[in-house]
Amino acid sequence: MWRLPVAAVFLTFGAGAQDSTPVFGTTVVIPSGLRGQIYNIGHRTKRLPDFAKMKPVGDIYTSMLNVPLQDFKRGFPGVTKRYEWFAIDYVGRFWIEQPGDYSFSLLADDGARLYIDNRLVIDNDGIHMAETREGQVALSGGIHRIEVAYFQGPRYQVALVLMVTPPNGIPRVFSTDEFKPPPNPEDWKYTPH
């Protein structure tokens, strides 16, 4: 198993930086990042719910999913105070400059799934302690859709880390900041999907 970097998206609680805790996102919109819709789920949920049949209670945004295993007792400031029995459906887009086989790793406590271009790449669903699953997908150059569906069951431990290994690359936390298209569409060498 890979060692996970500690860089993360932070929200600061209280007056001091020592109150900072890696969390699932912020209520500040990140246009090129992932939008996570938060859902309250029932106390007997054992698998990811069907988000199409549910109404979100709020939105959060992040450019990476890097929540190492930790206690989570604060909920989502400005969104909901819930710290157990919730789900988040993250959706975004990313740009591939170097086509090839990409490996992904998804650490989750409890369940999570990774979809790329609406295709299931990793299934790490169910109620369980922190567990890592891996998958591989061939990606063409250009824009791709990414979705990470996640749910947290009983309190208090949570974890959600998405890693990527590009062709002939090293594993690292997946970040939409790293997979942005060139600023000018006329410079794109791939046709958007």
Detail the topology: elements first, then pairings.
Blueprint: E1 10-11, E2 21-22, E3 34-40, E4 58-62, E5 66-71, E6 86-96, E7 100-109, E8 111-116, E9 119-124, E10 131-139, E11 142-152, E12 157-165, E13 172-173
Antiparallel strand pairs: 1-2, 3-4, 3-6, 5-12, 6-11, 7-10, 7-12, 8-9, 8-11, 12-13
Largest beta sheet, briefly? 6 strands, antiparallel
What fraction, in percent, of the residue positions are helical?
Answer: under 10%
Total number of beta strands: 13
Strand content: 35-45%
* CATH architecture call: Sandwich
The residue-averaged pLDDT reads: 85
SSE string, helices as H and strands as E: EEEEEEEEEEEEE
The CATH top-level class label: Mainly Beta
What does this protein look like?
The protein has a single domain, classed as Jelly Rolls (Sandwich). The chain has no helices and 13 strands. It starts with 9 loop residues before the first strand and ends in a 20-residue tail after the last strand. The protein has a 6-stranded antiparallel sheet with strand order 4-3-6-11-8-9, with no helix packed on it. The chain is mostly beta strands and 193 residues long. It has strands at 10-11, 21-22, 34-40, 58-62, 66-71, 86-96, 100-109, 111-116, 119-124, 131-139, 142-152, 157-165, 172-173. Mean pLDDT is 85; it is low at 1-20.
Using brief descriptors, characterize the structure shown.
193 residues, mainly beta, six-stranded antiparallel β-sheet, five-stranded antiparallel β-sheet, 0% helix, disordered N terminus
